[in-house]
């Protein structure tokens, strides 16, 4: 009977230890998963945009003027030379287009 009690006590200690180990393994596995998910998320993010005209950024390729608040406004001149022009027409494009979307009219 004494041996049975010792075996049962040992069995209970082993079960408790196994339960504690599996709980710890679960926590470590979850922490590793969160860490790897964070690394993957960081790798999938696009790089920060480069500012036009800044060191390492793309070059300025358009005619532009500086506004009072420090921003730049790019523009495109087209049509007849200034000396022959009778009218000045300014085409303002919408949000989802660019300066190249202006209607190209040939001189008459």
UniProtKB/TrEMBL annotation:
It comes from the Eukaryota. The chain crosses the membrane at residues 24-41. Keywords: Membrane, Transmembrane, Transmembrane helix. This is Serine aminopeptidase S33 domain-containing protein.
